[in-house]
Amino acid sequence: MIPPNFEPEPPAFIFERAYTDDHHFLFAFPDEKKAPNARQIQLRRLYDIMNLSVQRNDLPRARRAWSILARCKEINWKAMWRLGITLLENDVRVMESNPRKIDYLRTMLLQLPEERERILAELVQHYILASRCRDALDELEFYLPSFPYHDNPVLHVYAGLLCIFVAQPSESVGANEVEETTYDSNSLSRAQIFLERAKALDPHNIVASEFLNKLHSISQGPAFLSFAGHDSDDETHTKGCQPSQPKRRRSNS
Fold it and tell me: Residues 115-162: pLDDT tens digits?
């Protein structure tokens, strides 16, 4: 006979697995905390989904995860600007540039002051990938006179190499004329200034040293012609570069 106070024992499988708060995630989370709460765990799962989707080239899913994370107060989406560039790709397996990336980087350059040197270097690379060499040089010439860009040797190397590139004759120059009009001396002089500044900031910079030697060799060669009578800013781009945009002026305010 069953006693009146009898309580059946719960199924054993309910207690077979002890509760644990040890959560495993795939990717390092920004501002990770040792004891995350339930909301932070969900955000970390979503962060894993976004990064895993990028790895699998599933950009639509990654963008949907990003759109949720960017609206959460716990996420500093500006600090993840490199990931933002990736989400603007058409295919993560192909490195290319597009107008959306350039506009995004120019916006981030103003909104994230602590990363502005890295962002400017990335912006210059995307200008080059888009065959907008003159625009890349204009961007560098606009920022390099000011701090902190003035003390960045990498940016000065970029400016020097771009000056050497635009100093070459345009595609419209005939084959018989190339030997007489190889380089624009004005652009080469600017390249030397940028490269010497880079070497002064970083004496062990091999790129700056080697191209300074090449500039010396070019200036001593017979195929060196000065175009002092022409305004180099009004010339067209060389070797596939597009016409330059009007230079921006610094405001006096």
Answer: 999 999 999 999 999 989 999 999 999 999 998 899 999 999 999 999
Type of residue at 228: A
Q: How far is 94 from 77, CA to CA, in rounded Å?
A: 24
Model pTM above 0.90:
no
Sequence-separated (6 or more) residues with CB below 8 Å from residue 141: 159, 247
User: What is the identity of the amino acid at 140?
Assistant: L
DSSP codes joined into one string, the chain: ---TT--PPPPGGGGSS--------SSPPTT--SS--HHHHHHHHHHHHHHHHHHTT-HHHHHHHHHHHTTSTT--GGGGHHHHHHHT-S-TTS----HHHHHHHHHHHHH-GGGHHHHHHHHHHHHHHTT-HHHHHHHHHHHTTSTTGGG-HHHHHHHHHHHHHHTSPPTTS-TTTTTTS-EEHHHHHHHHHHHHHHHHH-TT-HHHHHHHHHHHHHHHSSSEE--TTS-GGGSPPSTTPPPPPPPP-----
Cβ count near 179 (within 10 Å): 10
Phi, psi at 44, each rounded to 5°: -70, -40
* Residue 88 burial (C-beta neighbours within 10 Å; 0-12, 13-18, 19+): middle
